[in-house]
């Protein structure tokens, strides 16, 4: 899940927010079109929530897509810590 806006610049001009949004939209596209994972996605202004079955989480393609997106957002968060906070939830299951 992602919420909020980066606040790096005015809405519509915020390249930090646009970068995170592009990464997450690409991950969603990769999950549905490349890995063929059945996802439930809710997107609206300032929020994106994507869910998929736990059984699909071991799929190598899905794991690669999600891990790449997470690393990319974490990288942006390190570059812009005042604008992006990345919190990784552990999957202990």
Please identify the top-level CATH class.
Alpha Beta
Oligomer: single chain
Number of strands: 3
Count of the domains: 1
CATH topology: Alpha-Beta Plaits
Largest sheet entry: 3 strands, antiparallel
Approximate shape = globular
Average pLDDT taken over every residue: 85
Strand percent estimate:
15-25%
Major beta sheet, strand line-up: 1-3-2
Q: Helical stretch count?
A: 2
Spell the H/E element sequence: EHEEH
Specify the CATH architecture: 2-Layer Sandwich
Q: Could you list the spans in which at least 5 consecutive residues all have pLDDT below 50?
A: none
Overall radius of gyration: 14 Å
Instruction: Calculate the terminal CA-CA distance, rounded to whole Å.
Output: 19 Å
Determine the structural class based on helices, strands and strand pairing.
alpha+beta
Helix fraction by DSSP (H/I, runs of at least 4): 40-55%
